[in-house]
Amino acid sequence: MSKKNIILAMLIIATMVLSAFSGCIGEEKAPTTTTAPKPSAIVFNSTQLRPPPETEWVTTELLPQFEEETGIKVTFVPEEYVPFESRLIGEVESGNVKVSVAGGLYGDFSLLMEKEYLTDLTGIDLPNRTFIKTFWDLSFYKGKQVFVPWMQATYILVANKKALEYLPEGADMNALTYDQLIEWAKNIYDATGQKKFGLPAGPKGLLHRFVHGYIYPSYTGKTVANFNTPEAVTMWEKMKELWKYTHPSSPMWDAMGEPLIAEDVWVAWDHTARFKTAIEEKPDDFVVLPSPAGPMGRGFITVIAGLSVPKGAPHIDEAKKLIEYLTRPETQVEITKGVGFFPVVEEAAVELPGGPLKVIAEGVVAQSGASDAIPAMLPIGLGEKAGEFSTIYKETFYSIVIDGEPIEDVLSARWAELKALYEETGAPYPAPG
Asked: Hey, which CATH number is domain 155-301+375-425, 3.40.1790.10, 3.40.190.10, 3.50.50.60, 3.65.10.20?
Protein backbone atom coordinates (compact mmCIF):
# COMPACT_ATOMS: atom_id res chain seq x y z
CA MET A 1 0.00 0.00 0.00
CA SER A 2 1.36 3.43 -0.87
CA LYS A 3 2.17 5.98 1.78
CA LYS A 4 -0.67 8.17 0.51
CA ASN A 5 -3.23 5.37 0.85
CA ILE A 6 -1.97 4.47 4.34
CA ILE A 7 -2.48 8.06 5.50
CA LEU A 8 -5.99 8.17 3.98
CA ALA A 9 -6.98 4.94 5.70
CA MET A 10 -5.69 6.22 9.05
CA LEU A 11 -7.72 9.42 8.67
CA ILE A 12 -10.91 7.45 7.97
CA ILE A 13 -10.34 5.22 10.99
CA ALA A 14 -9.64 8.22 13.20
CA THR A 15 -12.80 9.94 12.05
CA MET A 16 -14.89 6.86 12.87
CA VAL A 17 -13.34 6.55 16.32
CA LEU A 18 -13.89 10.21 17.11
CA SER A 19 -17.50 10.02 15.99
CA ALA A 20 -18.16 7.04 18.21
CA PHE A 21 -16.31 8.65 21.12
CA SER A 22 -18.19 11.93 20.81
CA GLY A 23 -21.46 10.01 20.90
CA CYS A 24 -20.37 8.35 24.13
CA ILE A 25 -19.54 11.60 25.90
CA GLY A 26 -22.96 13.17 25.56
CA GLU A 27 -23.67 14.35 22.06
CA GLU A 28 -27.10 12.82 21.56
CA LYS A 29 -27.86 11.20 18.30
CA ALA A 30 -30.91 12.71 16.56
CA PRO A 31 -33.80 10.28 16.78
CA THR A 32 -34.87 8.66 13.58
CA THR A 33 -38.48 9.18 12.62
CA THR A 34 -40.34 6.36 11.01
CA THR A 35 -44.00 6.21 10.13
CA ALA A 36 -45.71 3.02 11.18
CA PRO A 37 -46.96 1.26 8.08
CA LYS A 38 -50.69 1.32 7.60
CA PRO A 39 -52.24 -2.09 8.06
CA SER A 40 -53.10 -3.86 4.82
CA ALA A 41 -56.39 -4.79 6.49
CA ILE A 42 -58.10 -4.61 9.85
CA VAL A 43 -60.52 -7.33 10.91
CA PHE A 44 -64.12 -6.37 11.69
CA ASN A 45 -65.81 -9.33 13.41
CA SER A 46 -69.60 -9.10 13.86
CA THR A 47 -72.59 -11.13 15.02
CA GLN A 48 -74.78 -8.69 13.08
CA LEU A 49 -75.42 -8.41 9.33
CA ARG A 50 -74.73 -12.12 8.88
CA PRO A 51 -77.41 -13.04 6.30
CA PRO A 52 -75.77 -13.24 2.85
CA PRO A 53 -77.65 -10.25 1.35
CA GLU A 54 -76.67 -8.08 4.34
CA THR A 55 -73.06 -9.28 4.28
CA GLU A 56 -72.87 -8.52 0.57
CA TRP A 57 -74.20 -5.02 1.19
CA VAL A 58 -71.59 -4.43 3.90
CA THR A 59 -68.70 -5.54 1.70
CA THR A 60 -69.83 -3.89 -1.53
CA GLU A 61 -71.58 -0.74 -0.30
CA LEU A 62 -70.83 0.15 3.32
CA LEU A 63 -67.10 -0.49 3.71
CA PRO A 64 -65.68 0.53 0.29
CA GLN A 65 -66.42 4.20 0.99
CA PHE A 66 -64.47 4.00 4.25
CA GLU A 67 -61.59 2.23 2.51
CA GLU A 68 -61.47 4.86 -0.23
CA GLU A 69 -61.57 7.71 2.29
CA THR A 70 -58.91 6.36 4.66
CA GLY A 71 -56.84 3.87 2.68
CA ILE A 72 -57.58 1.30 5.39
CA LYS A 73 -58.81 -2.05 4.12
CA VAL A 74 -61.40 -3.86 6.22
CA THR A 75 -61.95 -7.61 6.33
CA PHE A 76 -65.53 -8.21 7.45
CA VAL A 77 -66.04 -11.50 9.32
CA PRO A 78 -69.70 -12.26 10.18
CA GLU A 79 -70.04 -14.92 12.85
CA GLU A 80 -72.60 -16.59 15.11
CA TYR A 81 -72.63 -15.47 18.75
CA VAL A 82 -70.99 -18.54 20.34
CA PRO A 83 -67.90 -18.68 18.08
CA PHE A 84 -67.72 -14.88 18.16
CA GLU A 85 -67.44 -14.84 21.94
CA SER A 86 -65.07 -17.82 22.01
CA ARG A 87 -62.83 -16.25 19.37
CA LEU A 88 -62.48 -12.95 21.21
CA ILE A 89 -61.90 -14.53 24.61
CA GLY A 90 -59.34 -16.92 23.13
CA GLU A 91 -57.47 -14.16 21.31
CA VAL A 92 -57.31 -11.88 24.35
CA GLU A 93 -56.19 -14.67 26.68
CA SER A 94 -53.53 -15.88 24.24
CA GLY A 95 -52.19 -12.37 23.72
CA ASN A 96 -52.57 -12.82 19.97
CA VAL A 97 -55.50 -10.59 19.07
CA LYS A 98 -56.41 -10.39 15.38
CA VAL A 99 -59.76 -8.58 15.61
CA SER A 100 -59.59 -4.78 15.67
CA VAL A 101 -63.32 -4.01 15.80
CA ALA A 102 -66.06 -6.26 17.18
CA GLY A 103 -69.73 -5.62 16.42
CA GLY A 104 -72.62 -7.29 18.21
CA LEU A 105 -75.72 -6.98 20.33
CA TYR A 106 -75.24 -5.52 23.78
CA GLY A 107 -75.70 -8.94 25.35
CA ASP A 108 -73.02 -10.43 23.09
CA PHE A 109 -70.42 -8.46 25.05
CA SER A 110 -71.64 -9.25 28.57
CA LEU A 111 -68.98 -11.87 29.39
CA LEU A 112 -66.25 -9.82 27.71
CA MET A 113 -67.26 -6.87 29.89
CA GLU A 114 -67.21 -8.98 33.05
CA LYS A 115 -63.74 -10.28 32.20
CA GLU A 116 -62.64 -6.71 31.33
CA TYR A 117 -61.43 -7.89 27.94
CA LEU A 118 -62.57 -4.75 26.09
CA THR A 119 -60.50 -1.62 25.44
CA ASP A 120 -61.44 1.58 27.26
CA LEU A 121 -62.69 3.93 24.52
CA THR A 122 -63.41 6.85 26.86
CA GLY A 123 -62.76 10.08 25.00
CA ILE A 124 -63.07 8.62 21.51
CA ASP A 125 -63.57 11.46 19.03
CA LEU A 126 -67.07 11.20 17.56
CA PRO A 127 -67.99 14.75 16.48
CA ASN A 128 -71.18 16.15 14.99
CA ARG A 129 -73.56 13.50 16.29
CA THR A 130 -75.82 13.17 19.31
CA PHE A 131 -76.17 9.63 20.59
CA ILE A 132 -79.51 8.73 22.13
CA LYS A 133 -78.82 9.09 25.85
CA THR A 134 -80.41 5.78 26.77
CA PHE A 135 -77.91 3.96 24.56
CA TRP A 136 -74.92 6.13 25.44
CA ASP A 137 -75.45 5.34 29.12
CA LEU A 138 -75.22 1.63 28.28
CA SER A 139 -71.76 2.19 26.80
CA PHE A 140 -70.03 2.28 30.16
CA TYR A 141 -68.90 -0.56 32.38
CA LYS A 142 -67.22 0.20 35.70
CA GLY A 143 -66.74 3.80 34.61
CA LYS A 144 -65.06 2.94 31.30
CA GLN A 145 -66.59 3.24 27.86
CA VAL A 146 -66.24 -0.20 26.30
CA PHE A 147 -69.12 -0.10 23.80
CA VAL A 148 -70.18 2.48 21.21
CA PRO A 149 -73.84 2.30 20.06
CA TRP A 150 -74.10 1.39 16.39
CA MET A 151 -77.68 0.53 15.33
CA GLN A 152 -81.00 -0.57 16.79
CA ALA A 153 -84.22 -2.46 16.17
CA THR A 154 -87.28 -2.44 18.39
CA TYR A 155 -91.05 -2.80 18.73
CA ILE A 156 -93.47 0.09 18.35
CA LEU A 157 -97.09 1.19 18.05
CA VAL A 158 -98.49 1.97 14.61
CA ALA A 159 -101.81 3.75 14.19
CA ASN A 160 -104.04 4.42 11.24
CA LYS A 161 -104.65 8.16 11.02
CA LYS A 162 -108.39 7.44 11.22
CA ALA A 163 -107.84 6.54 14.88
CA LEU A 164 -106.31 9.88 15.83
CA GLU A 165 -109.63 11.69 16.23
CA TYR A 166 -110.48 9.29 19.06
CA LEU A 167 -107.41 10.03 21.16
CA PRO A 168 -108.28 10.92 24.76
CA GLU A 169 -108.62 14.62 25.39
CA GLY A 170 -105.24 16.19 26.13
CA ALA A 171 -103.28 13.06 25.17
CA ASP A 172 -99.95 13.49 23.39
CA MET A 173 -99.76 10.67 20.86
CA ASN A 174 -95.96 10.67 21.20
CA ALA A 175 -96.11 10.28 24.98
CA LEU A 176 -99.09 8.03 25.67
CA THR A 177 -99.66 6.14 28.90
CA TYR A 178 -101.24 2.69 29.09
CA ASP A 179 -104.29 4.26 30.73
CA GLN A 180 -104.62 6.55 27.71
CA LEU A 181 -104.14 3.62 25.32
CA ILE A 182 -107.01 1.79 27.03
CA GLU A 183 -109.17 4.91 26.86
CA TRP A 184 -108.24 5.37 23.19
CA ALA A 185 -109.23 1.80 22.32
CA LYS A 186 -112.47 2.23 24.27
CA ASN A 187 -113.26 5.52 22.50
CA ILE A 188 -112.88 3.81 19.12
CA TYR A 189 -115.11 0.95 20.23
CA ASP A 190 -117.76 3.28 21.62
CA ALA A 191 -117.81 5.27 18.36
CA THR A 192 -117.59 2.42 15.84
CA GLY A 193 -118.75 -0.67 17.71
CA GLN A 194 -115.51 -2.37 16.64
CA LYS A 195 -112.48 -3.55 18.58
CA LYS A 196 -109.69 -1.87 16.65
CA PHE A 197 -106.63 -2.52 18.83
CA GLY A 198 -104.44 -5.49 17.94
CA LEU A 199 -101.63 -7.58 19.41
CA PRO A 200 -99.61 -10.38 17.74
CA ALA A 201 -100.89 -13.06 20.12
CA GLY A 202 -100.75 -15.92 17.60
CA PRO A 203 -98.57 -19.05 17.95
CA LYS A 204 -95.61 -17.36 16.23
CA GLY A 205 -96.40 -13.84 17.36
CA LEU A 206 -94.11 -11.77 19.55
CA LEU A 207 -96.58 -11.24 22.38
CA HIS A 208 -94.02 -12.45 24.94
CA ARG A 209 -91.80 -9.48 24.04
CA PHE A 210 -94.69 -7.14 24.78
CA VAL A 211 -95.11 -8.75 28.18
CA HIS A 212 -91.53 -9.01 29.45
CA GLY A 213 -90.06 -5.97 27.70
CA TYR A 214 -92.89 -3.45 27.66
CA ILE A 215 -95.61 -3.82 30.27
CA TYR A 216 -93.50 -5.40 33.02
CA PRO A 217 -90.82 -2.65 33.11
CA SER A 218 -93.50 0.02 32.66
CA TYR A 219 -95.52 -1.16 35.67
CA THR A 220 -92.96 -2.86 37.93
CA GLY A 221 -89.63 -1.34 36.86
CA LYS A 222 -88.18 -4.80 36.23
CA THR A 223 -88.33 -7.60 33.68
CA VAL A 224 -87.98 -10.59 36.02
CA ALA A 225 -87.39 -9.58 39.64
CA ASN A 226 -90.87 -8.11 40.18
CA PHE A 227 -92.77 -10.78 38.27
CA ASN A 228 -95.02 -11.67 41.22
CA THR A 229 -95.67 -8.39 43.05
CA PRO A 230 -98.64 -6.13 43.83
CA GLU A 231 -97.51 -3.87 40.98
CA ALA A 232 -97.67 -6.85 38.63
CA VAL A 233 -101.21 -7.63 39.79
CA THR A 234 -102.24 -4.05 38.95
CA MET A 235 -100.59 -4.40 35.55
CA TRP A 236 -102.52 -7.56 34.71
CA GLU A 237 -105.78 -5.93 35.75
CA LYS A 238 -105.01 -3.17 33.24
CA MET A 239 -104.23 -5.71 30.50
CA LYS A 240 -107.57 -7.42 31.09
CA GLU A 241 -109.24 -4.05 30.64
CA LEU A 242 -107.32 -3.40 27.39
CA TRP A 243 -108.31 -6.84 26.11
CA LYS A 244 -111.98 -5.82 26.20
CA TYR A 245 -111.26 -3.56 23.22
CA THR A 246 -108.72 -5.79 21.46
CA HIS A 247 -109.68 -7.45 18.18
CA PRO A 248 -110.88 -11.02 18.86
CA SER A 249 -108.65 -12.39 16.07
CA SER A 250 -105.49 -11.28 17.88
CA PRO A 251 -104.81 -14.83 19.23
CA MET A 252 -104.59 -15.98 15.59
CA TRP A 253 -102.34 -13.19 14.31
CA ASP A 254 -98.58 -13.72 14.23
CA ALA A 255 -97.89 -10.27 12.77
CA MET A 256 -99.85 -7.04 12.62
CA GLY A 257 -98.93 -5.68 9.19
CA GLU A 258 -101.76 -7.36 7.25
CA PRO A 259 -104.48 -6.54 9.80
CA LEU A 260 -103.40 -2.89 9.59
CA ILE A 261 -103.51 -2.87 5.79
CA ALA A 262 -106.95 -4.51 5.83
CA GLU A 263 -108.09 -2.03 8.53
CA ASP A 264 -109.15 -4.89 10.77
CA VAL A 265 -107.27 -2.87 13.39
CA TRP A 266 -106.41 0.79 13.57
CA VAL A 267 -103.83 0.63 16.36
CA ALA A 268 -101.34 -2.21 16.80
CA TRP A 269 -98.08 -3.16 18.52
CA ASP A 270 -95.37 -5.30 16.88
CA HIS A 271 -91.74 -5.46 15.73
CA THR A 272 -90.65 -2.74 13.30
CA ALA A 273 -89.83 -5.32 10.61
CA ARG A 274 -93.38 -6.67 10.70
CA PHE A 275 -94.84 -3.23 10.01
CA LYS A 276 -92.52 -2.39 7.13
CA THR A 277 -94.74 -3.74 4.33
CA ALA A 278 -97.86 -1.96 5.60
CA ILE A 279 -96.09 1.38 5.79
CA GLU A 280 -94.45 0.86 2.40
CA GLU A 281 -97.83 0.12 0.82
CA LYS A 282 -99.69 2.97 2.51
CA PRO A 283 -97.13 5.44 3.88
CA ASP A 284 -99.67 8.26 4.10
CA ASP A 285 -102.15 6.23 6.13
CA PHE A 286 -100.11 5.51 9.25
CA VAL A 287 -98.22 7.17 12.08
CA VAL A 288 -95.57 5.45 14.19
CA LEU A 289 -95.73 6.07 17.93
CA PRO A 290 -93.57 5.30 20.94
CA SER A 291 -94.94 2.52 23.11
CA PRO A 292 -96.97 3.70 26.13
CA ALA A 293 -95.67 4.40 29.62
CA GLY A 294 -96.79 2.98 32.94
CA PRO A 295 -96.27 4.19 36.53
CA MET A 296 -92.54 3.34 36.44
CA GLY A 297 -91.78 4.77 33.00
CA ARG A 298 -91.78 3.84 29.32
CA GLY A 299 -90.55 0.28 29.09
CA PHE A 300 -89.40 -0.90 25.69
CA ILE A 301 -87.11 -3.54 24.27
CA THR A 302 -84.01 -2.23 22.67
CA VAL A 303 -82.26 -4.57 20.32
CA ILE A 304 -79.11 -2.47 20.45
CA ALA A 305 -75.99 -3.35 18.50
CA GLY A 306 -72.68 -1.70 19.25
CA LEU A 307 -68.98 -1.64 18.49
CA SER A 308 -66.10 -2.56 20.77
CA VAL A 309 -62.35 -3.04 20.54
CA PRO A 310 -60.88 -6.17 22.17
CA LYS A 311 -58.15 -5.54 24.72
CA GLY A 312 -54.78 -5.89 23.00
CA ALA A 313 -56.27 -5.38 19.55
CA PRO A 314 -53.95 -4.30 16.74
CA HIS A 315 -54.33 -0.99 14.92
CA ILE A 316 -56.30 0.88 17.59
CA ASP A 317 -56.25 4.19 15.71
CA GLU A 318 -57.63 2.55 12.59
CA ALA A 319 -60.29 0.78 14.67
CA LYS A 320 -61.42 4.11 16.10
CA LYS A 321 -61.64 5.56 12.59
CA LEU A 322 -63.94 2.73 11.53
CA ILE A 323 -66.13 3.28 14.60
CA GLU A 324 -66.28 6.99 13.81
CA TYR A 325 -67.33 6.22 10.23
CA LEU A 326 -70.01 3.68 11.18
CA THR A 327 -71.68 6.09 13.62
CA ARG A 328 -71.77 9.19 11.41
CA PRO A 329 -75.35 10.38 10.80
CA GLU A 330 -74.97 9.95 7.04
CA THR A 331 -73.64 6.41 7.48
CA GLN A 332 -76.47 5.62 9.88
CA VAL A 333 -78.92 6.71 7.18
CA GLU A 334 -77.26 4.37 4.68
CA ILE A 335 -77.46 1.48 7.17
CA THR A 336 -81.19 2.09 7.63
CA LYS A 337 -81.75 2.19 3.88
CA GLY A 338 -79.47 -0.78 3.23
CA VAL A 339 -80.41 -3.31 5.91
CA GLY A 340 -83.31 -1.84 7.91
CA PHE A 341 -81.57 -1.28 11.24
CA PHE A 342 -82.42 2.09 12.74
CA PRO A 343 -80.20 4.98 13.87
CA VAL A 344 -78.72 5.49 17.33
CA VAL A 345 -77.86 9.15 16.67
CA GLU A 346 -80.59 11.77 16.65
CA GLU A 347 -79.36 13.58 13.54
CA ALA A 348 -79.80 10.51 11.33
CA ALA A 349 -83.58 10.36 11.71
CA VAL A 350 -83.76 13.94 10.44
CA GLU A 351 -81.51 13.17 7.46
CA LEU A 352 -83.51 10.16 6.26
CA PRO A 353 -85.37 10.93 3.03
CA GLY A 354 -89.15 10.92 3.21
CA GLY A 355 -90.97 7.64 2.91
CA PRO A 356 -91.72 4.53 4.96
CA LEU A 357 -88.30 4.19 6.56
CA LYS A 358 -88.37 7.78 7.76
CA VAL A 359 -91.83 7.24 9.25
CA ILE A 360 -90.61 4.22 11.21
CA ALA A 361 -87.24 5.73 12.13
CA GLU A 362 -88.79 8.85 13.63
CA GLY A 363 -91.02 6.70 15.84
CA VAL A 364 -88.12 4.48 16.86
CA VAL A 365 -85.89 7.42 17.79
CA ALA A 366 -88.74 9.14 19.67
CA GLN A 367 -89.31 5.99 21.72
CA SER A 368 -85.67 5.34 22.59
CA GLY A 369 -85.03 9.02 23.29
CA ALA A 370 -87.99 9.49 25.64
CA SER A 371 -87.13 11.13 28.96
CA ASP A 372 -88.93 8.36 30.87
CA ALA A 373 -87.42 5.51 28.84
CA ILE A 374 -86.73 2.18 30.55
CA PRO A 375 -84.72 0.11 28.06
CA ALA A 376 -85.21 -3.63 28.42
CA MET A 377 -82.78 -6.18 27.03
CA LEU A 378 -83.46 -9.58 25.56
CA PRO A 379 -82.60 -12.47 27.90
CA ILE A 380 -79.01 -13.71 27.79
CA GLY A 381 -77.22 -16.74 29.17
CA LEU A 382 -80.19 -19.12 29.00
CA GLY A 383 -78.78 -21.17 26.14
CA GLU A 384 -81.11 -23.90 24.94
CA LYS A 385 -83.65 -22.90 27.60
CA ALA A 386 -84.28 -19.44 26.13
CA GLY A 387 -87.55 -20.73 24.71
CA GLU A 388 -88.80 -21.54 28.20
CA PHE A 389 -88.43 -17.88 29.17
CA SER A 390 -90.62 -16.78 26.26
CA THR A 391 -93.19 -19.48 26.97
CA ILE A 392 -93.60 -18.44 30.61
CA TYR A 393 -94.43 -14.84 29.69
CA LYS A 394 -96.69 -15.71 26.77
CA GLU A 395 -98.63 -18.34 28.70
CA THR A 396 -99.01 -15.99 31.67
CA PHE A 397 -100.78 -13.58 29.32
CA TYR A 398 -102.97 -16.35 27.89
CA SER A 399 -103.91 -17.67 31.33
CA ILE A 400 -104.78 -14.32 32.90
CA VAL A 401 -106.05 -12.17 30.05
CA ILE A 402 -107.61 -14.64 27.62
CA ASP A 403 -108.62 -17.55 29.86
CA GLY A 404 -109.55 -15.42 32.87
CA GLU A 405 -107.66 -17.43 35.50
CA PRO A 406 -107.03 -15.75 38.91
CA ILE A 407 -104.09 -13.36 38.64
CA GLU A 408 -102.43 -14.23 41.95
CA ASP A 409 -102.61 -17.98 41.31
CA VAL A 410 -101.09 -17.71 37.85
CA LEU A 411 -98.31 -15.39 38.97
CA SER A 412 -97.39 -17.64 41.88
CA ALA A 413 -97.13 -20.73 39.68
CA ARG A 414 -95.27 -19.03 36.83
CA TRP A 415 -92.89 -17.24 39.19
CA ALA A 416 -91.83 -20.60 40.58
CA GLU A 417 -91.02 -21.74 37.04
CA LEU A 418 -89.16 -18.53 36.22
CA LYS A 419 -87.05 -18.66 39.39
CA ALA A 420 -86.19 -22.30 38.75
CA LEU A 421 -85.10 -21.45 35.21
CA TYR A 422 -82.66 -18.79 36.42
CA GLU A 423 -81.39 -20.89 39.30
CA GLU A 424 -80.70 -23.79 36.95
CA THR A 425 -78.92 -21.76 34.28
CA GLY A 426 -77.20 -19.22 36.53
CA ALA A 427 -78.01 -16.56 33.95
CA PRO A 428 -78.34 -12.92 35.01
CA TYR A 429 -81.73 -11.24 34.82
CA PRO A 430 -81.93 -9.17 31.63
CA ALA A 431 -81.89 -5.40 32.17
CA PRO A 432 -83.59 -3.67 33.90
CA GLY A 433 -83.48 -6.66 36.22
From this structure: 3.40.190.10
Boundaries of every domain in the chain: 42-153+303-361, 155-301+375-425
Please report, rounded to a whole number, the percentage of residues in the chain having pLDDT higher than 70.
91
Distance CA 390, CA 388 (A): 5
Average pLDDT over residues 198-213: 96
**Rounded CA separation 54/60 (Å):** 10
**Residue 4 clears pLDDT 90, i.e. is over it:** no
Superfamily of domain 42-153+303-361: Periplasmic binding protein-like II (3.40.190.10)
DSSP label at residue 15: H
How confident is residue 228, by pLDDT bands cut at 50, 70 and 90? very high
* Residue pair 409/396 in contact by the 8 Å Cβ criterion: no
Long-range contacts of residues 257-266, Cβ cutoff 8 Å, at least 24 apart: 259/198, 260/158, 260/160, 260/198, 260/286, 263/160, 263/162, 264/198, 265/196, 265/197, 265/198, 266/159, 266/160, 266/162, 266/163, 266/188, 266/196, 266/197
| Strand 286-289 relative to strand 140-141, pairing | unpaired
